[in-house]
Structure formats: C-alpha cells, structure tokens
Specification:
This protein has 347 residues and is an alpha+beta fold. It has twelve helices and nine strands. It has helices at residues 4-25, 29-40, 45-50, 60-97, 116-130, 144-147, 180-189, 229-244, 298-303, 320-328, 335-338, 341-344; strands spanning 134-135, 141-143, 172-174, 193-202, 214-224, 250-257, 260-269, 286-296, 312-319. A seven-stranded mixed beta sheet has the order 1-4-5-9-8-7-6, sandwiched between helices. It has a two-stranded antiparallel ribbon with strand order 2-3. The mean pLDDT is 91. It binds 3,4-dihydroxyphenylalanine (DAH).
C-alpha cells in the first residue's frame, strides 16, 4: 500500500503543477482573484491537503510540512507576480484611453452668444444707465407686503387671488411684478432716487403664444423734488427713440394702477409698419400696452418713509419678453424659454 506521506506529496505536487499552469493562463483581475482563493484561500486546495496532516505519523509530518511550505511560497510568489503584471496592464490601458491628442486640428470654432432676452435686458439697462439711472436687483421670492400692501393694492384686488398668484405661504409669494423693488429701493436708499430693476416675474397663467407663468419685467423709478409728469413723458420718449429709432412716437392713455396716480399705459409706433397701419397693429399704427407708468402715489412714498410733501416721483414698468419679441420679430413667447439651439443660434 502506498504510504500516506507519498499520497500527500503527490497531491501537493499535482496542485502546484495545475496552479502554475492556471496562473500562466490568467487574463483578467477577476480570474486572478478566483485563482488566488482557489489555491491559497482558507478553503483552498492547499489547505484541504494539509488538513490530512493529522493522519501522518510524527516523523513524516515535518517532511510533508516542508514540501507544503515550499509549494505555498512558490505559488504565492507566482501569484503576486501575475497580479502586479495585470495591474500594470490595467493602468497602462487606462492611461492610453485617457490620452489627449493635442495635435488634433479643428477649423470649426463654435462661439456661444447671448440669449435674446439677456441681450435686451443689457440694452435696456445700458440705455437707462446713460440717462443717469442705477441698476438694482430684487428677490424673486417676495413678501405679500412688498408685492401688494406697500404698493397700495387693496386687500380685495383680483390680482391678489390664489388663482392669479403663486403663494408660498400666506405672507410669501413669487413676485407678480418687479414693482416691489421700488419699495425695497426707497426703504433702503430713501430720496432722491433714480433706479431701474430687471428680472423674473410670475403669474398663474396658462401657457400660449403670448403667455407664460414666468416672464420678465423692467421697473423704473425716479424720486426727487419737483418731479412731474413732463419728466416721465420726456424720459420714456427718449428711451423709446433710443431703443427703436428716432422716428418712434409714444402715446399715453389713462389707466389705473394702485401705486401710481395718475396712471397711464403707453403705446408706441408699430414697429412692423412704422405707423402706417398693418395687420399686426390692427391698422392703428400703434403697438399697444408695451409699458405702464404713472406718478408714484403719495401713499407709497409715505409707506417707505419718504416725505410726499417734499418729494414726488414717477415710475414705469415694461414687459421685457414683449419688447424682445417686437424687436426680433418673434411671434411665440415659448420660443424664448425652450432653449432650442436651432432657434437661439439665429440671434
Ligand atoms: N407693475 C405693473 C404690472 O405688472 C407695471 C407697472 C405699471 C409698473 C405702472 C410701474 C408703474 O412702476 O408705474 O403690470
């Protein structure tokens, strides 16, 4: 009968041979890890054989033990070597993949450019800066107080309804116009004052070609001694001529805003027909409702701590989206917000 010692020796040598052959053929890190566990792991082949050491007589144990240790060392070294090689290969292939080809040649230069809305805002701001106005900004999330109360809007006014306004809480809302910036400016800076403020505004509107729940306004405010309606008309007149051309005219129609008295809506010469009358202006020669304006209501001045006996003021508000659409001949407001590059690249 073959001795136990010889059986084990043979078994160990067989494991070594198979293991070395397998190690040579390893191709991936996963395969490598499986192999390591299979031969050297706690439940691996080598350990399995060594478990039978107890069946050997005392003198044989060190002999088999020595062979087992030598094989273990050999396998460990071989496996470590392959592991290193695989890791190196992985690193190298990663680096090759991430290599930048700095010699690549492209003649195609793609330039970004301003969104037509932003271009309009900047043009409007520049025009008012040239007339001595300062540019200020206000938050899109406002208090009901600044958006309505301070602007003399009565509690029962329809614009305060849940169906027209996005309320966040009972006292906080998404501003429905840029007029609350007037309140902030007067409270913070007092009189005299000459500011414009552009930004986003929000109303509970269904989307169509002229309506969007998010739109843009520019607000203007002048407060000083001896400010009159004549100053308002002159300022807006010059502004419209600078914006659209020297042949442009303005027309003031009486209107009502709670925060101005008197109030007016401003029509300007139709840009399509330059006043001759066309389909776009219903043959009136006028573009309607581009601007609202008026003399600041004394109650609004007083609310902000400004002496309405000493100071008077005028204010105006305009729809930036409308102006952009008229200026660039855009007939659908949704195009401004879809960010379709085929549309935007035209400007
Ligand atoms: N806030 C008004 C609106 O959203 C526009 C407006 C009208 C602003 C008259 C003003 C103003 O400052 O004086 O319709």
């Amino acid at each position: 009968m073959e001795k136990m010692k010889d059986i084990m020796k043979e078994k160990l040598l067989e494991i070594k041979e198979i293991a070395l052959k397998n190690i040579e053929e390893v191709k991936s890190l996963e395969e490598f890890e499986q192999l390591r566990v299979k031969f050297l792991g706690k439940k691996g082949e080598l350990t399995k054989v060594l478990r039978d050491m107890g069946k050997l007589i005392a003198e044989e144990r060190p002999i088999v033990g020595q062979i087992a240790n030598e094989i273990r060392d050999e396998l460990e070294n071989a496996i470590a070597e392959v592991g290193e090689k695989l890791n190196d290969e992985l690193k190298r292939s990663k680096m090759n993949k991430e290599k930048l080809d700095i010699t690549i040649n492209t003649n195609e230069e793609i330039y970004g450019h301003r969104h037509p809305l932003l271009a309009t805002v900047e043009e409007l701001e520049d025009l008012f800066i040239s007339m001595g106005f300062s540019v200020v900004i206000g938050p899109e999330i406002e208090t009901v107080e600044n958006n309505f109360d301070a602007l003399n809007s009565p509690e029962n006014h329809p614009s305060r309804d849940m169906s027209d306004t996005f309320y966040i809480t009972e006292d906080i809302l998404l501003r429905t116009h840029t007029s609350p910036v007037q309140i902030r400016a007067m409270k913070e800076m007092g009189a005299p004052l000459r500011i414009v403020s552009a930004g986003r505004t929000f109303r509970f509107d269904d989307v169509d070609d002229t309506h969007s729940p998010m739109f843009h306004q520019l607000e203007g405010l002048v407060v000083d001694e001896n400010i009159s309606m004549a100053n308002l008309i002159h300022t807006l007149d010059i502004f419209i001529k600078e914006l659209f051309g020297p042949d442009m005219k303005t027309r003031y129609r009486p209107h009502h805003f709670p925060f101005t008295e008197p109030s007016a809506e401003v029509d300007v010469t139709c840009l399509k027909c330059r006043g001759k009358g066309c389909e776009a202006c219903n043959y009136t020669g006028w573009s309607m409702e581009l601007l609202g304006c008026g003399m600041v209501h004394p109650k609004v001045l007083e609310y902000c701590g400004i002496d309405s006996e000493k100071y008077t003021g005028f204010a105006f508000g305009m729809g930036i989206d409308r102006i952009t659409m008229v200026k660039y001949g855009i007939d659908d407001i949704r195009l401004l917000f879809e960010n379709d590059s085929r549309f935007l690249e035209q400007f």
